[in-house]
Design a protein that fits this description.
The protein has about 250 residues and is an all-alpha fold. Helix content is about 80%, strand content about 0%. It has one domain.
Length: about 250
């Protein structure tokens, strides 16, 4: 697919901003997905290609938060990785079986749910008592929650970080930097397996994805180091505003 210099510039800027937003708050596909759609890429290919473009940014931002990464209370790091891999593979396989027009219809609803989950995460945490917070019951609840989010991430990368942060908040995490590091790690794992499935299914536009990778990686690492020093309230505001704007734009078509 051929693009003008202006279109390539939009794709590169979107990738840099997407990698940076993923590092500090999640929702990087709010930039890469619409940019690729604007460039004329079909919705499913845009999701798959944008996901690949952001993958190095996830790795870079995970390294940027390396001092803060801690697993959930009742899950080992091994269990975390295995669940993320399995869920990401299932979600990616589901995407490849979804018709493009149906996926375009689902996109704004997926963005809306992701944004609302993050916006109301603290309220949900205060409102609902966590009855399975420790022991085997706690491990089962956290494992099922992570599996569901991983399937979502493998299916639609948009807002993945938002959903993960909301899930970790509901599971009892309160330190924003720890949540960010864990979110970036899980995103890296499930996105890597999802991209492998996308590639096998022929859904990736390699030229666009590989060029955007460079900008996303730079954005991910730079903003990971900067984001560790930002006030948590500002980080939350960035997520909610970005998610809200993109949701409205996609509903308007």
């Amino acid at each position: 697919m051929e693009h003008s210099i202006g279109t390539w510039a939009i794709l590169l800027v979107a990738a840099f901003l997407g990698g940076g937003l993923n590092a500090i708050a999640g929702g990087g596909s709010f930039f890469t997905f619409p940019a690729l759609v604007y460039a004329g890429v079909p919705a499913i290919a845009a999701n798959a290609s944008g996901t690949l473009a952001l993958l190095p940014g996830y790795f870079a931002s995970t390294w940027g938060y390396r001092e803060d990464i801690k697993p959930p209370a009742t899950l080992t790091m091994t269990a975390l990785v295995v669940i993320s891999l399995g869920g990401g593979a299932v979600g990616a396989a589901l995407l490849l079986t979804t018709p493009d027009e149906l996926f375009r219809t689902l996109v704004p609803w997926l963005l809306l749910v992701a944004t609302l989950l993050f916006a109301f995460g603290p309220w949900l945490l205060r409102t609902f008592t966590r009855t399975a917070s420790s022991g085997e019951a706690g491990a089962l609840m956290q494992g099922c929650t992570l599996a569901a989010v991983s399937v979502y991430g493998g299916y639609f990368n948009g807002g993945l970080g938002i959903v993960l942060l909301a899930a970790f908040s509901l599971l009892g995490h309160s330190n924003i930097n720890s949540m960010q590091g864990l979110k970036n790690l899980v995103s890296s794992v499930l996105t890597a397996i999802a991209v492998s499935v996308y590639a096998f299914g022929g859904a990736i536009l390699w030229k666009e994805a590989l060029v955007m990778m460079l900008a996303a990686t730079a954005g991910g690492y730079v903003m990971a180091r900067v984001g560790r020093r930002l006030p948590p309230s500002l980080v939350r505001a960035v997520v909610i505003v970005t998610g809200s704007i993109m949701t409205v734009l996609f509903f308007r078509g």
